[in-house]
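User: I'm curious what two different proteins look like when written out as structure tokens. Can you demonstrate?

Assistant: Sure. I'll show them one after the other, since each token string lines up with its own sequence. Here's the first protein:
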Amino acid sequence: MSGGKGVKRNGISRRGFLKSGGATLAGGAIGIGAAGTAVASSESSPPAIARLLRKATLPAASGARVVVVGGGWSGLTLAKYLKRFNPDFDVVLIDRQSAFVSFPVSNAWLADQVDLDFLSHSFFDAANNHGYRFMAATVLGFDRDSRRVFTEQGYVDYDYLVLAPGIEYDYPRIGVDDPEAQELLFHRYPGGFVTSSELLTIKRKIHRFRGGTFVLTVPSGDYRCAAAPYERACMVAAVFRRRRVRAKILLLDMNSDIVIKREGFARAFDELYGDSIEYLPSSEISALDVDARRIETDFDEYEFDDAIIYPPVRASRLIEEAGIHNPEDPQKAPDTDPFRYHLRNDEHVYVAGDSRAQPFSKGGHTAHSEAQYVAEVIAAHARGREIAWRSPQTMCFSAVDIEPLRAMSIITYYKYDSTTGLFAFDRTHLIDRWDTQGGQASLAWAEGMYRDLFYG
């Protein structure tokens, strides 16, 4: 018997391994108790399992060790600023990728406004320049009792753990439940917000498209970079115009209206791409046939020649499988203190970046701003202190044209309403007139951010 839910191979169930935020290796071969102690010798276990019980090959910690899971904008910022706010910390950043490729500004790359070197950077450079350690590995789970993180290269002990594992696509929310159909959809029509391979596939699509109907979707809920799908539609239309491809772009928005920079994007759709972009709000996707290339919404049905399907998103499964999520949250966000970012019952485990529960923008600048604060919170906690809550800052540039590059921008903060118990926008400055100055500012902003994350 193979495949099915709950099936164990070599005496190990992944669900059991991650249950309740701990690591449980069951089935008779090997186990980890509440304190993380091996209850069977690793010599008697299959090699892959024995490796989990060995300490990863890292130098001994020189101080309190902080393990950061996830090398995106949030994790990179955390690793740097943890060392800045407390130089005695021994910081280890773990990411399954061996190199960094930026999703912010990737739309400009799709339209040939920057090259791939602009988006690509080395985790080694970041670690060397900022004094922390980088480990290329996949995190399989963690045990909060023993304060231990498990990877396929062995375990790493921690004094503080910061989870910044990002987002995952939630295909069942658009009617795609079958694992095989999900895999086909992900590979053939990727959304472009989780892996760098998606970006490579999308660029090939838009530069080789011969004509016909090209579909892009905008998810509902809180998704990564609210403006990005609208910006991407503009970039795709601009590339088609430059290539003189006759195409109809259907932008299916699961929301009732453009969710950010509404007037600027609406004007771009009308004035720049009125003959190519058809914007369709309230297009809640109910089913999708990958082979037939057909999308069904609550009110209509659309066939397409090619597509970029961006479904609703959820927090990384690492959060849910560890049992630290809020079961009432449809996006499986963690149950954390909204001002301190740690689990409500564990001040040594924090969640930041796009997997966090707060409704702040899931964008690069927000992650960078927020992570500096979280790093300061952890550094203060290690010294027995607290700092006052401060809002992250969101800064977002959106390009709408490429000849020349023209963009608009928004800057905002957030405030907490103690009456409603909700966060809201605060001190928002919107420039929705797109121009070349905005286009150049968007690239200068990205250069400055990469410099801070990797070299400064």
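Here's a second, unrelated protein for contrast:
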Amino acid sequence: MKKLIMIKYGELSTKKDNIGLFLKKLKDNVVNVIGNKGSVSFDKGRMFIEGDNIDYLVTKIKNVFGIHEYEIVYKIGTSYEELKTSILELLKDLNFISFKVSTKRSDKKYFKNSMDVSKEIGGFILKNISGKVVDVKSPDLIVNIEIRADAIYIYFEKYSGIGGYPVGSLGKGLLMLSGGIDSPVAGYLAMKRGIKIECLYFESPPHTSIEAQNKVLELAKKLALYNGDIKVHVVNFTPIQEAIYKKIPHDYLITIMRRMMYRIAAIIAGKRNCKVLINGESIGQVASQTLTSMSVINSVVNIPVIRPVACFDKLEIIDLAKKIGTYDISILPYEDCCTIFVPDHPVINPIKEKCILYEELIPYKDLIYEAVKSHEIKIIKASESEFSDLL
């Protein structure tokens, strides 16, 4: 009898001809997190992880997207007699009174159907272990039996994974990561849909501090738990921001600033083969996130922009930020460049033509070129991120 982890796919199982691509990526991601501590095998129905320390392996897979559910299972041969003796062996150390047996049979050629196996094994337990009763509605223990072509698997507990698609199965995106609450949550949700992320952070020294940058790098460490290693592109936005502040009417400061950020993001995304920009904009939350503002700002780039929290309210975003461990970092009191030089009355319905005229007041193309050319890349290692038992 061998103890191992069995993974169920959930949403991935709805894929048809291309399911193999998703499962291969899921296997690669699992292998990346468990290293040389275990081995992985899979087919279209299940994935299995074997290793000497199953409890350790469980802690490593909890943050892997693409896993709908997992169980700690006991693998035996397909012999019916072995099934009986193995169940008695496993049950002798468990504390329960009531139970039920639940059987699934993916091997339809097996000589007994699922209902017969459940009835017979239930009767066998009653006969051989005194003081037990069957309760099909709310048992203390469920004896799960899964009959497959190569083996039979026995387990007693089911554990929820975090679902979604394997990170990287649908390409790469560039997350515009500020120090706020929303953008890390947006990054998490994008990863859940199979997008591997790199991050872009705009700093504005001396107006922003090194503590503000470190705060963002700490947020990236949290995201690396799900993504694997993350590249953080740090762009010095000071010359652009100061030029905007000196030359542009103040009610348009935020709009023009965001248009510049989008242009820079699109250039870096193109260089890094990122197919989309990702940000934490939520409709109506601030002046730059009205539908008109987003449309005017978005118009400077051709690359798709996805906003995973666009239709979330603030309390929903905060709740998810707490669950993924980014909230306490995000509320640290270090301002980023999006919160400095904020006008008292920013325009909420900017006019695109005005933006174009105002932008002619500054040499923004040269400034953008220099910002991209001189930007730094910091690498956040997933192996250096603390494990977080979440969701």
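A detail about the second structure: The longest helix spans residues 253-271.
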